[in-house]
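User: Can you predict the 3D structure for this chain?
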Amino acid sequence: MSEIRVPAAGALLDGDLTVPADARGVVLFAHGSGSSRLSPRNRRVAAALQGLGIGTLLIDLLTRDEEAVDERTSQLRFDIGLLARRLGDIVEWLAARPEVRPGSVGLFGASTGAAAAAIAAAAHPDIVAAVVSRGGRIDLAGPDVLERLRAPTLLIVGANDVPVLRLNEAALGRLAGVRALAIVPGASHLFEEPGTLDEVVRLAGMWFGQYLDGRSFGPKGQS
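Assistant: Here is the predicted structure, written as structure tokens:
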């Protein structure tokens, strides 16, 4: 693992980059509201992906000073435009690295980070090969973005997270490319129930394992 700093939308952001030898691709994590690159759930998913030969980049989308402000106001974590701009800059930085093959970047978004991931993926169709959302508010990206998003996209939602499930069901119909909705039985928003995060790990590994290698872009309606 390498500790890195990435310039993005006017800030220097701290991240942890791990790229196995002959990596099939690299997945960039967009954490959710009030979280960071130290999120235990995202780090568990990242470790599993590394075991499959997929690189990972866990990165803070806010600086330390911004996080201190956000702890008091909770405003920046919901500034999806800012988060998406920073994520887009990180996508470009990652794609320029010599160990990253063209078109082999994936995005894993949680909560509000899923909306930022969708915006960044739609803006970088030649770089982002796959997107996974975990309990994500991908609907906050807006219908225009969802209709332009071509990267194969998997929405993972807990069966007990009913409001977010309904929003994901509506968003699924607007996605333009290959897409699927996976409902994890017994899971709430944070997938804290026994075995539920294991299912997230399995689903994300299968999705990235398939699409980071093949970049299979199908017509709307295929899943």
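Strands lie at 2-8, 11-18, 26-30, 55-59, 105-110, 128-134, 153-158, 179-184. The two ends are 34 Å apart (CA to CA).
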